[in-house]
């Protein structure tokens, strides 16, 4: 991004904000007036059904953007909450869209962001709809590690994983019991271990073989 483009974004930028773990960044059906980019920490988006069941839609790591929708009058289709303490940059939605409209290069950045997000959602749909429990967990752990690596959060075969088993289950359409059994199976087989807020990829080729079976 050029200095001119950075300067163009300044009118849309608000002061950075911090949220404690479990705090809501925004609620479902809230007017879409702000866009967030994660500086530090982890967040997730989710939908809550009337009977209390939850579907985790996406996980957000440093650098990821939340709340970017095509027009400023939209309402949020989901809620966003901090998984860990989170620091975010905040942008005015309408002003940022105006900046994107004025800059072809920045518009291409936004289109690339939308395309990547749609590709990830397609993969998640296949994962939930057609894969077995162990295939779902394997795919999820591999994606989590690869995204952490791109964000510079890995240390060899280890990356942060502050998600609870409930978070993982709600992301994959699995019960806590299913998640616990699957993670135990992966750990006992020496393939992957999730413990104490970290993910250890002990045998990536075997984990990939499970996901790609």
UniProtKB/TrEMBL annotation:
Gene3D superfamilies: Jelly Rolls (2.60.120.10), Winged helix-like DNA-binding domain superfamily/Winged helix DNA-binding domain (1.10.10.10)
Keywords: DNA-binding, Kinase, Transcription, Transcription regulation, Transferase
SUPFAM superfamilies, alphabetized: cAMP-binding domain-like (SSF51206), Winged helix' DNA-binding domain (SSF46785)
One term under GO cellular component: cytosol
InterPro entries cross-referenced by the UniProt entry: cNMP-bd_dom, cNMP-bd_dom_sf, Env_Response_Regulators, HTH_CRP, RmlC-like_jellyroll, WH-like_DNA-bd_sf, WH_DNA-bd_sf
Keyword check for Iron-sulfur: no
PROSITE patterns given in the database record: HTH_CRP_2 (PS51063)
Chain ranges of the HTH crp-type domain: 131-205
Metal-binding listed as a keyword: no
Gene Ontology terms for molecular function: DNA binding; DNA-binding transcription factor activity; kinase activity
PANTHER family: CRP FAMILY TRANSCRIPTIONAL REGULATORY PROTEIN, FUMARATE AND NITRATE REDUCTION REGULATORY PROTEIN
The protein's name: cAMP-binding domain of CRP or a regulatory subunit of cAMP-dependent protein kinases
